[in-house]
Design a protein that fits this description.
Radius of gyration: 42 Å
Helix content: 40-55%
Structural class: mainly alpha
Distance between the termini: 104 Å
Oligomer: single chain
Order of helices and strands: HHHHHEEHHEEEHHHHEEEEEEHHHEEEHE
Mean pLDDT: 78
Low-confidence stretches: 1-32
């Protein structure tokens, strides 16, 4: 039998709980859905906090990461706002439900008073009817009781969710404030740093250009190449010693002149030579123009200008290289016509275009014969049917790089007797032809200045400094302080870090490196140095070939440089 006093107290407690209940979610949103939403939001904010942690230690890609973090914060703020709107809607709905529930609680109390089970037994004549009514009222009472209990449980759960949501809102606000205070200043500093780096880049590009100016692109007029100190067998007088040796220089595009010489000595004719370097082409004879405009005036094209081009030694014609001379004559004719037809209409007479020399004109040797024997012959692309810019250079290091001109593309070529990487570098045509630039350490300027250095070899301290610079660059992508600071070309960059300062800068980046135990490189089948591997007192480090070459050129003292993208680092 139901204890009415207990039940009355229970209902009063429930009603009080309902009256003091606060914010709940709308009836249209399920409790499970809100639980899932808040749980997902909690995880997302935790993920955001975790993703922001590296920003406190990283400077690379900081702008994009800050923007991403801000975007996530905005998204989460929108989610919290949407959930807040649902809570406000539910608060309005709750006022109506309070009224309805209070009536239901009152009816529940009345229904529990209507019947006493003892009455059913006393009124035996109407016991069946009373029993049915009693059963029906008990069902109503049970439904009311369940509805009240369920509603109270929902209120408790939703109030708990509201507290959780408020907690996440506070946490998100803290994350946002932390980000703004920590990175707001840095965003402005990044802009300043980028401007500084752009200004500094011009100075560093000038240094790189000065080092790259040590070598002309053709055989005709080049810097001194018979320097024994630039060879790998040179003894610098100290040990350990480190040096960079470049295979060829500098652009490695189109025909290799020494490669053509080696191919000619190997029995190849001019057409085979030109196809090897320029790809899908044909050699056609055309009516040459009577004259050509140059930077020194208008010159007769075939009998003056071409005969006066000093791009390949005429003496090669007497030493098995006559087919190379003919290949050079055809390439030079095609280049000049392509240049004047598609560019300014006038061609310069320096290495920037073609080296034209009155000395060659007055003493052409077998070069004049090569020009005459190929009179009117030009190279045309089979793809377009037109001439294109037929680039060439002294030495490509046994591997040429593809380029495109007027929709014609030349091949990537391993310029070896086997036509592949497998027999490089020993069986390169350039090496067989005896190119002095095939494998060379560069340490002098074009004028011959060595800036106080006697060879390209570096001491352990000097090379360790370069490796520290490469390490710093690999971690920060910032080279603004990594220019040379000793034996400088011109005045030293005041922004360049000293050796000691650079050591301090890499102390938290795996350095500083004091001793280099060994160094090696990996070559790509694409014809470039892919990886530089360095074993040091602080462990082993791998650098991309391109990045190491850039830092080596910037940081190495004097005019020491890795001129080609295909290079080696030696230790002795």
């Amino acid at each position: 039998m139901i204890n009415l006093n207990v039940l009355k107290k229970f209902l009063i407690i429930i009603f009080c709980l309902i009256l003091v209940s606060g914010y709940v979610l709308p009836v249209s949103v399920s409790r499970a859905s809100i639980d899932d939403d808040i749980a997902a939001l909690t995880k997302q904010i935790a993920d955001l906090e975790a993703s922001m942690a590296p920003l406190k230690k990283e400077s690379g890609n900081l702008s994009s990461k800050i923007a991403s973090a801000k975007s996530q914060i905005i998204k989460f703020e929108a989610q919290i706002s949407a959930l807040g709107s649902k809570l406000i809607d539910r608060e309005s709905d709750l006022e109506v439900q309070k009224t309805l529930l209070s009536q239901r609680v009152r009816q529940y109390y009345i229904n529990t008073k209507k019947f006493n089970p003892l009455m059913i037994f006393l009124a035996s004549s109407e016991s069946s009817s009373l029993l049915r009514q009693y059963t029906w009222y008990q069902s109503i009472i049970s439904q009311d009781r369940n509805a009240i209990i369920t509603y109270v449980n929902d209120i408790n759960t939703l109030n708990s969710n509201k507290a959780k949501l408020e907690t996440e809102k506070v946490k998100l606000a803290a994350v946002k404030k932390d980000m703004e205070s920590r990175f707001g200043f840095l965003a402005g500093e990044i802009t300043k740093a980028e401007k500084y780096k752009n200004e500094l880049s011009a100075r560093q590009q000038s240094l790189i250009a000065e080092k790259n100016a040590m070598f002309n692109t053709s055989v005709g007029d080049v810097s001194t190449s018979d320097d024994p100190a630039s060879r790998s067998d040179y003894n610098p007088g100290f040990s350990p010693a480190f040096a960079a040796f470049s295979f060829g220089a500098p652009h490695r595009k189109g025909m290799s002149q020494y490669g053509a010489y080696g191919r000619s000595k190997d029995g190849q004719n001019y057409e085979t030579i030109l196809r090897a370097y320029y790809g899908d082409i044909k050699i056609e004879k055309m009516d040459s123009p009577g004259s050509i405009k140059t930077s020194v005036g208008t010159l007769p094209f075939e009998d003056n200008y071409l005969v006066g081009i000093a791009e390949m030694p005429a003496s090669w014609g007497d030493n098995g290289g006559y087919e190379a001379l003919k290949a050079q004559a055809i390439a030079a004719r095609t280049y000049a016509l392509s240049y004047t037809n598609n560019l300014s209409g006038s061609i310069c007479v320096t290495e920037a275009c073609h080296v034209y020399s009155t000395s060659r004109l007055n003493n052409p040797g077998r070069w004049k014969q090569a020009v005459q024997d190929t009179r009117g012959m030009v190279i045309k692309s089979n793809k377009t049917g037109n001439i294109f810019s037929t680039m060439y250079a002294s030495t490509s290091g046994g591997a040429t790089i593809s380029y495109t001109s007027l929709n014609h593309s030349t091949p990537n070529l391993w310029d070896t007797t086997c036509g592949a990487f497998s027999c490089w570098p020993n069986d390169s045509y350039e090496k067989k032809a005896g190119s002095p630039w095939y494998y060379k350490g560069w340490y002098k300027s074009r004028s011959g200045s060595a800036y106080g250095l006697s060879s390209p070899w570096l001491t352990n301290d000097q090379f360790s400094d370069i490796v520290n610079a490469a390490l710093y660059y690999s971690k920060t992508n910032d080279s603004s302080h990594l220019s040379q600071n000793q034996n400088c070309i011109g005045s030293c960059d005041p922004n360049a870090w000293s050796r000691d300062e650079l050591r301090r800068q890499v102390s938290d980046k795996g350095g500083p490196i004091s001793t280099v135990n060994s160094v090696s490189v990996d070559y790509s089948t694409g014809g470039y140095t892919q990886t530089v591997r360095v074993s040091t007192d602080k462990g082993d480090f791998n650098f991309s070939g391109d990045a190491f070459k850039q830092i080596f050129t910037l940081r190495a003292p004097g005019a020491i440089t890795a001129k080609s993208t295909l290079f080696n680092i030696e230790k002795k």
